[in-house]
Amino acid sequence: MAKKIKLGVFGLGVVGCGLVNIVNGRREALSQAHGIELEIVKAVVRDPTKKRPADLFGIQVSTDMNSILDDDTLDLVVELIGGMEPAFTIIKSALARGKPVVSANKALIAEHGPEILNLARQAKRPFFAEASVGGGIPILKTLRESLVANEITAVTAIINGTTNFILTKMEEEGLSYYEALKIAGERGFAEADPTMDVEGFDAAQKLRILAAHTLGGRYPQGDILCEGVSGLTEHHFAFARKHGFAIKLLALARRRADALELRVHPTLIPRLHPLASVRNEFNAIYLIGDAVGEIMLSGRGAGSLPTASAVYADIVDICTRTTTIEASVESAPAAWPTRVLPADEAQSEYYLHFTVLDKPGVIGEIATVLGRHHISVRSAAAELVPNVEEVGELDVIVHRSRERDVRQAIAEIDKLERTRGQGKLIRIARDL
Ligand SMILES: NC(=O)c1ccc[n+]([C@@H]2O[C@H](COP(=O)([O-])OP(=O)(O)OC[C@H]3O[C@@H](n4cnc5c(N)ncnc54)[C@H](OP(=O)(O)O)[C@@H]3O)[C@@H](O)[C@H]2O)c1
Questions:
Q1: Which residues are the active-site residues?
Q2: Distance 14 CA to ligand 1 centre (A)
Q3: Are 291 and 175 contained in the same domain?
Q4: Looking at the 3D structure of the chain, how many domains does it have?
């Protein structure tokens, strides 16, 4: 006879209903494989009368948080509400009452992960949150278990499906940013307010969790350079295509001499790099381990069933563990420096784009300003803007330079008489 595991679930939204559907669909398989049966006994939502795309037969649905927290017969609590409160209070209370907890809450874990882990350790109860980083991609467990032989020396990730969908449409169909965003909304890949996604904040939250997991330490949001995709244009994609690059919103963690680089920004990467082939809403995490070398995990970073797949796996992991229980978003031994390199001190090769008046000498004038800021030009080319008299686009690639110098040079160039609007920089990463 299968051992019954009773679950209390907070939230029956996109992920919560996905979880119900997987629990219902995998009953027989789980019993045969592991001799356990998951039973969602209680769920807490805002509106219990709402119709939901899942069979809730046998689940007691209410708005009363304590119906789950006070129930000593429940074996495990699942938090799928999202946001800070009441999710934080729910997780703390459940752990304090001796219940293992599974969550998918990236916003909360990015901010309070270390605190939650301390509580889990004190309570000697597991806290697992696989779905908080790459949706259905099993990255945290892979790092924790399968890559335990490695020191991870670099992490490069596409961890926001909305922006990857938008960038794919801009690249493959030549759409403008707003046209691509509209299609993302129509297909359910962008929220009504897309700011968290398109400005890179969602990816930065996941990078904080990933960094804490791989590198150890705690990284405030303010330490992470975060730039989104809303300033990208068709011209930038045409330039990238012509020069053998793809443009991806990357979340990067890198070890530099005595500091870490943690950054989220659009990046020109070689078209032949595995990350360049990650299309549409897919996510991917590309790692370098000192023993395994390069490894990439790719899959759906969001959605009902993909995300619930990771939540379900955490639940089964907890229920089938026989060894000492550990938390899943834990601090690795701090082999890496913990100081985050200020964005200004970072170095990169850059693609710079300026709108200029088509007059003799303008390229030389811009190159002179760059030179004054210790920036050397690798290539520069100008072309007229179609249908706009005497206005040109100037594309410049500069050798590896310090970000502060590049920003100061752009600010100076923007003030020249023969430039228009604001210069744009996009970082180039040839060796990821
Ligand atoms: N959706 C994804 O693809 C995805 C991917 C990765 C991670 N996640 C994470 O998974 C979590 C859940 O996301 P989701 O997309 O499933 O959210 P959602 O569709 O908005 O569902 C949230 C659920 O929580 C309930 N809820 C919200 N506030 C509540 C409160 N104060 N008290 C009681 N119940 C409350 C809602 O109840 P009602 O239904 O009655 O309103 C709803 O059932 C979030 O942390 C999110 O970041 C989601």
A1: 206
A2: 7
A3: yes
A4: 3
Confidence at residue 220, expressed as pLDDT on a 0 to 100 scale: 82
Asked whether residue 337 is domain-assigned, the answer is no
| Residues comprising the chain, all counted | 432
Distance CA 21, CA 26 (A): 9
Whole-angstrom Cα distance, residue 130 to residue 329?
8
Which ligand 1 atom is the nearest neighbour of the CA of 302? Answer: 3
Give strand ranges (E) for 45-191.
60-62, 76-79, 101-103, 127-128, 152-158
Of the residues 270, 299, 328, which one is the last residue of a structural domain? 299
Best residue among 66, 307, 329 to mutate for probing ligand 1's pocket (most ligand atoms within 8 Å of CB) is: 307
- Please report the atom of ligand 1 found closest to the CA of residue 107: 47
pLDDT, mean of each 10-residue run, the chain (432 residues): 94 98 97 96 98 98 98 98 98 96 95 90 92 95 91 93 98 97 95 96 94 75 93 96 97 86 97 97 96 97 96 96 55 63 93 92 94 96 78 95 97 95 96 86
Residue 65 CB neighbour total at 10 angstroms: 16
- What's the confidence (pLDDT) of residue 223? 87
Q: Is the CB of 162 under 6 A from ligand 1?
A: no
Residue 64 lies in a domain: yes
The domain spanning residue 424 has which CATH number?
Answer: 3.30.70.260
CB 200 within 8 A of CB 265: yes
Domain assignment of residue 188, yes or no = yes
Instruction: Answer whether 11 contacts ligand 1 (Cβ < 6 A).
Output: yes
Domain of 224?
152-299
Q: Is the domain of 8 the same as that of 92? A: yes
Say yes or no: 186 and 287 in one domain: yes
Residue 102's pLDDT is 97
Tokens 């870490």, residue located: 260
The answer to whether residues 157 and 35 belong to one domain is no
Residue 282 shares a structural domain with residue 310: no
Whether residue 274 has its Cβ less than 6 Å from ligand 1: no
Cβ of 311 less than 6 Å from ligand 1: no
CB 366 within 8 A of CB 418: no
Q: Does the C-beta of 129 come closer than 6 Å to ligand 1?
A: no
Q: Indicate whether 289 and 180 sit together in one domain.
A: yes
